[in-house]
Structure formats: C-alpha cells, structure tokens
C-alpha cells in the first residue's frame, strides 16, 4: 500500500488501498462538480451496539487436517503454536464432514466388514495428548464433533474421554455434522424437499442424538450444525430444546463450488450478496434468543466444497471475510468459525515447521484484534459511498471501519484526530497494510480504493 499526504492539497500518491486526494479530483470526470465527501470522527458509539461476548472468529478443522498439523512429535510444531497465538488464540472446533467418518484410536480392528467401515478415519494414537500440548500453550476453548451416523455409543464415550483429557480452557460437543443432508443422495435434491420430510428427519436425528448424548454426562452441546438451516426452519426450536443447546450453531457459505465451481468468481465473492449472507439467517438468531442461548456460524468460508483456487485463496477472500463477520455480528451471531479441509480456502497450510499463510489469515488476525471480548460495534449511517462500522473497545477507545463495495474509489474526511493508525485490506495485495497519518488543521482526507476495507484508530491507542 502507498499513501500520499500533503495537507489536502498535494498531488496524488501511488496506487494503493488508501490515498489522500487533492480537492476537485474525486470521480471519473474532472469537469463534473462532485459531491463533497462525508466527514466523520473517531468517537465511541453513542448508543448500544452489538456486544462482542466471545472471540468474533474461530477455526473449524477437519480431524485429518488437525492430526496432520499436530505433526509426529509429542507436541505440535512451534510454528502452529505461534500461528494460533498470532490469530488471537481463536476457539478450535474439530468438526466438518470428517466427524461423521472418524473412529477413536484402536476402535477399528480386523478386516473391514463393510464399505462404510473401510472408509472410516481412525484417529492416531497420540492425537489427544498432542492436542493437550497445543491447548496448554494457546489456551483455546475446544469443540469436539462426535460421529453420529455410525451410532456407536462406545466410540462416543472414548472420544469424550479423549477430549476431556485434551481440553484446558472449556469444552463442548457437537452431535453429528449437517444432519439435514444425511438422507440426500446428491446435491440436486437440496431444493426438492418431500412433504413431511423435515419432521421425519428431525425426529430421526433427535432419536440418535439422545442415544449418543448419554456419553456426554451433561457436557454442553453446540448444534445442530445444519448445512441448509432453512430446511429445518420450522423444527429448529424443537431441536434446540431437545438437545439442550448451550450454543446454536449453523453453517453458512455464500457461494458453492460443489457442482458449479466456475460460478465461484472474484466478482461474486466481492458482491454485497456474499458479504451480507448472514442476514438471511436472522431467524436463527431469533430462535436462539427465544431459547436464551447465543447463536454462532460454526462453519463458514468463501465457497462450499473446499472453495476455488484463484478466488478462495486470493486477497479478495480477506476483504470478504471482514464484511461477512461484521454482517454476522450485526445480525446477532456471536462468532464465525472458518473451515479448514485441506483445500484452497484454508487460511493457512502447515508443512512440518513451515507455515504458509493465505490472505484470509490476515483478516482473521485483524478481526480478533480489532474486536476483543467486551467491545461493541454498530453501523454508522450517512457516510457517502461507504459502509461504515463504528467499534468501541472495552476501554472506550474508538475504531472506524470503512468498506467500499463499489468499483470506484470513494473519499471521506476524518476530523478531530491529530494522528491516525490506518490498516487496510484490498483485493489485489495480500496481507494487512498499515501506516500512520497526521492531520492538518484537524482534517485528513482519505480515498478508499474500490472493493477495499479500511480500519482507522487513533495512533498510539
């Protein structure tokens, strides 16, 4: 990123996510008289906003991905510990499709008796001990997904015991993954529910869940981990009550790479529809509120079925992630957990001690730093051409996030703050770009690049 600054009157600087532009040069036509940019201040929100009660971003990992990342030693690679700490020690979930395909270590013996048995994943013998070493270093809470489809109570009991030996800072359990898809032969059936199917499927799920729940001995439950929550919309209150959920968790992907990966494009990921996808699930939050428990998006990423190379691993994914999480929090969700499956949308990849980060990683780190527990956020109306979010930290400090969803740069004037810390994410440059700017006579004119997100805070705060 490059920033040019000169008391509202110098020439424009090099291209970048943010610049300071001379008066009269905003807009595509220099001869047209542009509307003056909005003026904003860095100040705490006047009214109550959405409260941040848990880390805004967590991670959801498939069992084989977690096992690989833990390595072959008694404790995980130092690079993994350092990366989780950089991300703000986010909550970890062992979940996804693999939770209904995982058997505890030693449970599978002898030749497989069926195709289903042959395709099960057996946990490595040292998995829980390695995980305990990781959690002892990072202090993250843990969610453990249990295999519901196999229906083995003894397996659940072994997994619960292993999880209890590993957890250091909180533990809950998920009973099965995406049970609304259990009976579907293929993805073409998703939009063709049969009469009475919802009630029958929910009843079957709850019967199995009650059986496996015996292994928990009253431990807290999160779920029901629905892939398409709308398919169980009428029955969700019954599910929440029957499971005694302490957190309602559902999945949300704005795009799908399952059947038509060509539909996963940079333009689609940067669209308002992809950013605002959590708003369509406001009814889930309402159901959770009526039950007196929080709701989270417990699995999410840019596109289902692992994402698409060139899109899900691009800088645009970081811009989308900030928009998506802010929309989720404003809708009433308390957290978003980004999914790892060994595919292009993973925020980072670990090869032994070598860790490769992708652009999405920088958004996760930024969000957990910008929004510590105890902070709040709310929309700020009237900022011309930009979506503005005002953040207030537990200590009362203010931050302003400006989001330009258009394909043209947009200007704004910040006043009342002598010096500003500016951080930005754009669709063409990886990583969070940061700099400090000083105002002249109490005013600073900024230009937010197309499809970019900028966070402003008082320097030194």
What does it look like?
This protein is of the alpha/beta class. The protein folds into 2 domains: 18-49 and 377-458, Golgi alpha-mannosidase II (Immunoglobulin-like), CATH 2.60.40.1180; 54-108 and 115-184 and 196-370, TIM Barrel (Alpha-Beta Barrel), CATH 3.20.20. The chain is 26% helix and 25% strand. An 8-stranded parallel β-barrel has the order 4-5-8-9-10-11-13-15, surrounded by 5 helices. A hairpin with a 6-residue loop joins strand 18 (376-380) and strand 19 (387-392). Helix 4 (127-138) packs parallel to helix 5 (153-166), helix 7 packs across helix 10 (282-291) and helix 11 runs parallel beside helix 12. It is globular. The model is unreliable at 1-17, 19-30 and 185-190 (pLDDT under 50).
Largest β sheet strand count, sense and barrel closure: 8 strands, parallel, barrel
Second CATH tier, the architecture of the largest domain: Alpha-Beta Barrel
Count of helices? 12
Class of the largest domain, according to the CATH hierarchy? Alpha Beta
Alpha-carbon Rg, integer: 23 Å
Average pLDDT, rounded to a whole number, is 90
β-strand number:
25
N→C terminal distance: 22 Å
Q: Look at the structure and name the CATH superfamily of the largest domain.
A: Glycosidases
> Which consecutive residue ranges, at least 5 long each, have pLDDT under 50?
1-17, 19-30, 185-190
Task: Kindly state the percentage of residues in helix.
Answer: 25-40%
Query: Might you state the CATH topology name of the largest domain?
Result: TIM Barrel
Total domain count? 2
Class by helix and strand content? alpha/beta
Output the strand order for the largest sheet: 4-5-8-9-10-11-13-15
- Determine the strand fraction and express it as a percent band: 15-25%
Question: What is the molecular shape?
Answer: globular
